[in-house]
Design a protein that fits this description.
Layout lengths: L3 H10 L6 E5 L12 E2 L9 E2 L3 E4 L9 E9 L13 E5 L11 E4 L4 E3 L2 E4 L9 E2 L10 E3 L7 H9 L4 E5 L3 E6 L4 E2 L10 E2 L2 H11 L3 E4 L7 H6 L9 E5 L10 H6 L3 E6 L3 E2 L5 E5 L2 E6 L3 H20 L9 E5 L10 E10 L5 E5 L8 H6 L2 E5 L11 E6 L6
Parallel strand pairs: 5-6, 13-16, 13-17, 14-15, 17-21, 19-23, 22-24
Antiparallel strand pairs: 1-12, 2-11, 3-10, 4-6, 4-7, 5-9, 8-9, 18-20, 20-21, 22-26, 23-24, 23-25, 25-26
Helix pairs in contact: 1-6, 3-6
Bound molecules: ligand LQZAQKY5 and molybdate ion (MOO).
């Protein structure tokens, strides 16, 4: 059976960065830059004051006392139209351009002003309280590289560099179809043998949080004709995801149903728990991932395979968020040949170390346990038994959308 890293590599090899689009800066947070952002101005654009006070010539000041003549004012946005000569100063405010001739700012707390006369016993080194032109970034400088998930800080940076629009990769559109005769919309009257469809809304929420545009398709019944119809519902999407009908039971029809309309299966079944019956292939050019129906397996497989694929489609340079180190909060037994993903509570010990404590029951249908889990503990195939306090690798669920 294919290992988890091999399966992920096969999936990543079959998806490609999407084309770009231009969006308003205010809509760009969370999107991925598709071109480097080059600053259109220097920041600050001129030498400016970082304090409220007086623009002075440092050489005029002396500990024995100096008396300066205030020849004007420079509020932010209104540069002083003149030069500060010997024995002169200009009233200045934070962010205002330092007038020619001045080379330091005397803060007003250290000055006594009376009419146009300013006295002080403070001395200053040239450059005091002046932010130099371009000290943050220079015009023409690359300030945001291509392939970065844009944060609110990046938005501020691009705005300061005078950009109103930004080029980002298009959001991946992902069609999600759950399959199963037992599934009804959440909130329905649930009859005997029926359950509420939790996979579609859960996966749509996860993929949306990861920057995709989910397209929720209707639930497909367990029959070949319904599955064949799927092919007609995926115009314009970038990936098709199904959940359920992946295993070997006689009603598990997804693979056979899609193969009759042209699915080329790349793999089916991998050495993973939860998630053994995972499927991957292409329907024409459309990447297809068939998730197992058990909701926890569907979620974990989405984290391990779909989110990295979306990151590649978005143009991020590192598709896989690396696992973090933690210590085990309880003993774990030897693992079998399937890579395991133990649902675990996260906390900290007295030394501040991250502690991952696996839940006692690891059933892949238990959504309440999944919702309480902060992490998945990774257990390599055939890993030896491990004790509480031993180091382990974890996927932090709150970090997988990065
Ligand atoms: N004889 C075998 N049986 C099973 C095997 C196996 O290897 N041999 N594998 C097991 C494993 S592991 C998994 S995982 C499941 C996966 O099965 P399917 O992908 O075919 O999923 P279904 O049979 O359709 O459903 C499984 C389970 O999940 C519930 N489900 C399905 N879809 C939803 C949904 N949208 N919302 C909520 N719950 C859903 C469904 O009712 C079933 O209870 O197979 C094992 N069996
Ligand atoms: O792989 Mo199944 O996901 O164990 O539940």
């Amino acid at each position: 059976m294919l290992s988890v890293p091999e399966a992920r590599k096969r999936i990543l090899d079959g998806v490609f960065p999407l084309p770009s689009e231009v969006v308003a800066l205010t809509d760009a947070c969370g999107r991925v830059s598709a071109a480097p952002v080059i600053s259109r101005l220097s920041n600050p654009p001129a030498d400016v004051s970082s304090m409220d006070g007086y623009a002075v010539r440092a050489a005029d000041l002396s500990a024995r006392g100096a008396r300066l003549s205030c020849i004007g004012a420079a509020p932010a946005g209104h540069p002083f139209d003149g030069t500060v000569g010997p024995g002169e100063c200009v009233r200045i405010f934070t962010g205002a351009v330092v007038p020619p001739g001045a080379d330091a700012v005397l803060i007003q707390e250290n000055a006594q002003a009376e009419d146009t006369s300013v006295t002080t016993t403070t001395t200053l080194a040239p450059g005091t309280y002046i932010r130099r032109r371009g000290q943050d970034f220079a015009e023409g400088q690359e300030i945001i590289p291509v392939g970065r998930r844009l944060s609110a800080r990046d938005i501020g940076l691009a705005a300061a560099a005078n950009h109103a629009w930004i080029q980002v990769t298009r959001r991946p559109r992902v069609a999600i179809a759950a399959t199963g005769d037992e599934l009804l919309l959440p909130g329905s009257g649930i009859g005997a043998g029926q359950i509420a469809n939790s996979n579609t809304p859960m996966l749509a929420a996860l993929l949306r949080a990861a920057g995709a545009d989910p397209v929720m398709l209707p639930v497909l019944r367990d029959d070949m004709a319904d599955l064949a119809m799927l092919e007609r519902m995926v115009d314009g999407v970038d990936m098709l995801v199904t959940a359920g009908g992946a295993s070997i039971g006689s009603h598990d029809l997804v693979r056979r149903g899609l193969e009759q309309v042209g699915l080329k299966t790349d793999f089916w079944k991998i050495a993973m728990r939860p998630g053994r019956p995972l499927m991957y292939g292409h329907l024409g050019r459309l990447p297809f991932i068939g998730l197992p129906g058990n909701p926890v397996a569907a979620f974990v497989c989405s984290v391990v395979f779909i989110l990295p694929a979306l990151r590649r489609m978005a143009g991020l340079t590192t598709p896989v968020v690396p696992p973090e180190r933690a210590v085990l909060g309880a003993d774990v037994p030897e693992n079998d040949r399937r890579m395991d993903h133990l649902r675990a509570r996260l906390g900290h010990d007295a030394d501040g170390r991250l502690v991952a404590t696996p839940f006692a029951v690891q059933d892949s249908a238990m959504l309440h346990v999944l919702a309480e889990s902060g992490a998945l503990i990774l257990r390599a195939p055939h890993a030896a038994p491990a004790k509480a306090g031993d180091p382990c690798d974890v996927i932090r669920i709150d970090r997988v959308m990065e």
